[in-house]
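Minutes, project huddle
Topic: does the predicted pose make sense with S-adenosylmethionine bound?
PN asked that the exact inputs be recorded in the minutes so nobody has to dig through chat later. Recorded below.
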Amino acid sequence: MASHKDLMQMVRDGLGTLVFAFGHKVGIIDAFIELKDPCTVEELSQKSGLNSRYIQEWLGCMLAAGVVRINKEKKYSLPYSKDLLKRWGHIASVIPIFSELFGKLAEDMSKEKPEGYTYYQPFLKWLDIFQTPEAVHSWNNNLVIPVLNLKSGKDFTLLDLGCGYGRHVRDIAEQYPDCHIFGIDSDEESIKQANIELAKTTLQNVKYEIMDGGKLPDDWVGKFDFVIMNDVLHDAYEVDSILKETKKVLKDDGYGAAFDPPVSSYPENLVNDKTAQFYMPFSLFSCLPESLSGPPGGEGLGAGWGYERRKEKIEKHGFQVIKVHKDVDKVQDGIVFKK
Ligand SMILES: C[S@@+](CC[C@H](N)C(=O)[O-])C[C@H]1O[C@@H](n2cnc3c(N)ncnc32)[C@H](O)[C@@H]1O
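Predicted holo structure (tokens), as shared on screen:
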């Protein structure tokens, strides 16, 4: 029988992650990157403009956690690439953001009928930074472009339903200058930010609008070659309306693609699963409450709704799920479907 997790170690790791996130936020990690370690406490202090006694203590935390190294000359190093340090420093900084939601989550949990809550703007901002142009480009190339290749021609019309700050479609629009892209989102702030970023480009083939994916315009019937939804369905409070409307606006030979965390619907499959260990906390603090919100009380899906039940739901709407990446019965990020 597998032994129980060492709870004390779990807490030590959590504390170490918080200290790492703090170092990322205040610039200690950036100082390490710029100094091209190994370096002294004083050098780190000078580079970051931070007090050396505090830096010493931060280094002590990270030495104990096995993240920072020290050599015989008492010089310190952080032996990871700049990309890894920036990426995991930013990811770790979601922990204090989620901590700010303790009160809201606890209050909603104590209700007989939880009402959830809508996106916490600091989290959406965090998410936007997480999606660096390189990360978005590689995501599109791995997951979205193979879907676009299902149809010949590069002058397609694509709807990004729940586009958020619209990064994914700006990258697609650059790669396919002859295509026409609509990005819609029910969140006003997201569309505002998407339009601000769009204005910094010369792209003419992207349009963002505030719109509810569960109520698409009637003059969009049969308009789109592709409808993509990235991290939308498991957050949605009206998944049936969204899928109904997706069917309405897709061309007869069009394709839909829904990308969500690759987590199984069945709790027994989550045991010691590192992918689920990463995604499920995002769901507890953001996806599930978002899916519980909205008139007249949402469905409460979240990442734990899982791949298998999401696929069943898409099939119930009369779509045929097709293989693009892995076999369709394997838990994965994307579900690609046609009418
Ligand atoms: C986790 S964010 C992902 C944003 C974006 N697709 C990305 O990958 O960066 C989910 C987005 O779906 C949007 N959304 C959820 N339900 C929606 C609906 N019914 N209609 C339109 N947008 C919706 C939210 O406002 C939010 O911006």
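Observations noted during the meeting:
- The domain at 7-92 is CATH 1.10.10.10 (Arc Repressor Mutant, subunit A).
- The mean pLDDT is 95.
No decisions taken; revisit at the next huddle.
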